[in-house]
């Protein structure tokens, strides 16, 4: 989970518009939809449908839910094409595109490494070298084959397991926002942990004010004012572990199969939350020195780095 963004409200709304916030527990974190509307009941009806879409996304894309469609896919023998739901296919398609754009710094096929690293964080022991090597051999986004005509997915390597955790919350934020706009609420913000999908500015404001937190949990490092975009932050503010005296992040470096050891937090502003969510971890993998330059080359419109 990522908790490095603060949505700030400073200016009052117009007299005929009120601000409403509705919250729901989803995807292991807290989702909140803030919208400006004249009628609370209509706003609530829209958010109810939006949250239902979030539940649907979680049901197909979670790697924690035992009977999720994603985990079922990961159990199919290597090389066998499997037809999946349009929803899951769309998420995987966007995940593979993110892998292409980031040259594998974002890799949706690291599920085997994710499972292994969770165990290491629990036991405070690094995986044995042979076990780690076997898990790394099962990861390769080039071996994830998609057929848009049939909505089929093929995992070409034995033991390959998908992990959409680096994009699913941002994707969900975008889909929830789409529902809000469909019902006539473009002045909305969907917050999904450390991922935000922002629409038109609140009444009387030039944009949504977002406070950026770094490694001091009680202070903010600055503020940005943005609209009609996605904003995501990731880093090892809260999720890290020390093993044999060395600090490791929850963010896995696909190149090593282990958590990052560089102390870093990156905030990405991009065209939507699907994009910003897939770029924030990837920029952490790049490292503080080159994160801004590289993430902007991927398509990020703004990048902020703390270390």
Give an overview of the whole structure.
By secondary structure, this protein is α+β, with helices and mostly antiparallel strands. It has a domain at 69-109 and 125-155: Orthogonal Bundle (T-fold). It is 34% helix and 26% strand. The chain is built from eight helices and 15 strands. The chain has a seven-stranded antiparallel sheet with strand order 2-3-7-8-11-14-15, with helices on one face. A three-stranded antiparallel sheet has the order 1-9-10, with no helix packed on it. Strands 4-6-5 form a three-stranded antiparallel sheet, with helices on one face. A hairpin with a 2-residue loop joins strand 7 and strand 8. Helix 1 runs antiparallel to helix 6, helix 6 packs antiparallel against helix 7 (273-286) and helix 7 (273-286) runs antiparallel to helix 8. The longest helix has 22 residues, at 40-61. It is globular. Residues 9-13 have low confidence and may be disordered.
Under the CATH scheme, the architecture of the domain at 69-109 and 125-155 is: Orthogonal Bundle
Shape estimate: globular
- Rg from C-alpha positions? 19 Å
> How are strands sequenced across the largest beta sheet?
2-3-7-8-11-14-15
Could you name the CATH class of the domain at 69-109 and 125-155? Mainly Alpha
Largest sheet: 7 strands, antiparallel
Let me know the CATH homologous superfamily of the domain at 69-109 and 125-155.
Answer: ApbE-like superfamily
Distance between the termini: 19 Å
Query: Low-confidence runs (pLDDT<50, min 5 residues)?
Result: 9-13
Name the structural class: alpha+beta
CATH topology of the domain at 69-109 and 125-155: T-fold
Percent helix, as a range, is 25-40%
Please work out how many helical segments DSSP would assign.
8
> What is the beta-strand fraction?
25-35%
């Amino acid at each position: 989970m990522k908790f490095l963004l603060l949505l700030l409200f400073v200016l009052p709304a117009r007299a005929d518009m009120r601000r409403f916030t509705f919250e729901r527990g989803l995807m292991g974190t807290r989702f909140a939809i803030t919208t400006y509307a004249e009628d609370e009941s209509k706003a609530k009806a829209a958010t109810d449908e939006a949250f239902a879409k979030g539940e649907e996304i979680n049901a197909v894309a979670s790697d924690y839910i035992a009977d999720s469609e994603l985990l079922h896919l990961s159990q199919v023998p290597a090389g066998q094409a499997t037809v999946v739901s349009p929803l899951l296919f769309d998420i995987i398609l966007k995940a593979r595109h993110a892998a292409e754009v980031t040259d594998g710094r974002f890799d949706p096929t690291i599920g085997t490494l994710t499972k292994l690293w969770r165990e290491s964080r629990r036991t405070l022991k690094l995986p044995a070298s042979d076990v780690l090597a076997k898990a790394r051999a099962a990861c390769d986004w080039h071996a994830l084959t998609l057929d848009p005509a049939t909505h089929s997915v093929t995992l070409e390597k034995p033991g390959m397991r998908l992990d959409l955790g680096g994009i699913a919350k941002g994707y969900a934020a975008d889909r929830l926002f789409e529902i809000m706009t469909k019902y006539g609420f473009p002045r909305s913000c969907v917050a999904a942990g450390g991922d935000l999908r922002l629409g038109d500015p609140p009444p009387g404001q030039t944009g949504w004010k977002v406070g950026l937190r770094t490694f001091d949990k009680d202070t903010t490092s600055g503020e940005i004012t943005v609209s009609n975009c996605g904003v995501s932050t990731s880093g090892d503010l809260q999720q890290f572990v020390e093993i044999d005296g060395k600090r490791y992040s929850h963010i896995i470096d696909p190149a090593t199969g282990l958590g990052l050891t560089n102390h870093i937090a990156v905030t990405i502003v991009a065209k939507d939350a699907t994009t910003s969510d897939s770029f924030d971890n990837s920029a952490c993998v790049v490292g503080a020195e080159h994160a801004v330059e590289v993430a902007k080359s991927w398509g990020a419109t703004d990048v902020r780095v703390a270390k």
